UniProtKB/TrEMBL annotation:
Keywords: FAD, Flavoprotein, Nucleotide-binding, Oxidoreductase, Proline metabolism. Its cofactor is FAD. It comes from Streptomyces pratens. It comes from the Bacteria. It is an enzyme of class 1 (oxidoreductase). Pathway: Amino-acid degradation; L-proline degradation into L-glutamate; L-glutamate from L-proline: step 1/2. It holds the Pfam family Pro_dh. This is proline dehydrogenase.
Length: 308
């Protein structure tokens, strides 16, 4: 399996230098990350929302080693929210945040991450939108869920992400569905050991459907993070069975992947949210996109060969 190899490469400084130096890299990266600054991303936001799509915005960058970097990550999100405010998009443009960017892995990281993310959640709420806490590797999840619970005391619209491949997720889904949370369900993109996660695609897919059913039958708001046509069809069937209206759940897909499907679902009346990342520290995000889907890797390799 190439996925674990690529994920390992995402943590390699040597591979970072090699990939970054390849002449074709920027062209390919632009497919997934359409800008490095807020000024560059605003026209993309305008285009997507003009086509009836919604967004969740991610400022890329996870290798935080100092409290000052965590503060800078907080300030980057505050700048984004400030620039989005005059557009009056409301929940059509929300934020996605990784708590690792806010200092979660540093000494005292749980409290530091909560202190840094709270102003972002407050600013988003003041602008009429919200924040979703992204899931990272399994060792970080107890902290993430505790921060999610704390934030929801004042900002109940704060969302979180669960990963179908983890054994714990079915129990997490039952708890979150019962308390009315906004929950994005994804398959999972981190290399996890067999002790905590399913390792085979068919097992992950079955777990995804089990968790999806729990969310659809619950009291929360399901956000379906998948590009899989079969899972999209199953989602629609489960939603009908649960009696959910089209605005009582949504689909989410990555910018640059299956763009025609984004537009098709929106045209059918579904809420279709595009996960749109931007920023200069794109390497880790880009490598995970390659690891998740073989077609992405083939696209990159063909581009490199074509420009060699």
């Amino acid at each position: 399996m190439l996925g674990p190899v690529i994920l390992a490469a995402s943590r390699s400084d040597r591979m970072r230098r090699l990939v970054s130096a390849a002449p074709v890299t920027k062209q390919v990266v632009d497919r997934f990350i359409p800008g490095e600054t807020v000024d560059e991303i605003l026209p993309v936001i305008d285009e997507l929302t003009g086509n009836g799509l919604e967004l969740t915005m991610d400022v890329v960058g996870e290798d935080i080693t100092t409290p000052e970097q965590a503060t800078a990550a907080r300030d980057a999100y505050l700048e984004l929210i400030g620039r989005l405010g005059p557009l009056e998009l409301g929940t059509r443009a929300e934020m996605s945040v990784k708590l690792s960017m806010f200092g979660q892995a540093l000494p005292g990281g749980h409290d530091l991450a909560l202190a840094n993310v709270r102003p972002v959640v407050e600013a988003a709420a003041a602008s009429g939108t919200t924040v979703t806490l992204d899931a990272e590797d399994h060792t970080t999840l107890d902290s993430m869920f505790a921060i999610h619970d704390e934030l929801r005391k004042d900002f109940p619209q704060t969302g979180c992400v669960i990963q179908a491949y983890l054994f714990r997720t079915e129990e997490d889904a039952r708890r979150l569905a019962a308390n009315g949370s906004r929950v994005r369900l994804v398959k999972g993109a981190y290399k996890e050991p067999a002790e905590v996660a399913h390792q085979h695609k068919h097992e992950i897919d079955k777990a995804y459907v089990r968790v999806l059913r729990t969310l659809m039958e619950g009291e929360g708001y399901p956000m379906i993070g998948s590009h899989d046509p079969r899972l999209i069809s199953i989602t629609q069937e489960l939603a009908r069975t649960a009696g959910r209206k089209l605005d009582e759940y949504e689909f989410q897909m990555l910018y640059g992947i299956r763009g025609d499907e984004h537009l098709r679902l929106a045209a059918e009346g579904h809420r279709m949210r595009v996960y749109t990342a931007y920023g200069t520290d794109w390497y880790g995000y880009f490598m995970r996109r390659l690891a998740e889907k073989p077609a992405n890797l083939r696209f990159f390799l063909r581009s490199m060969i074509g420009h060699g």
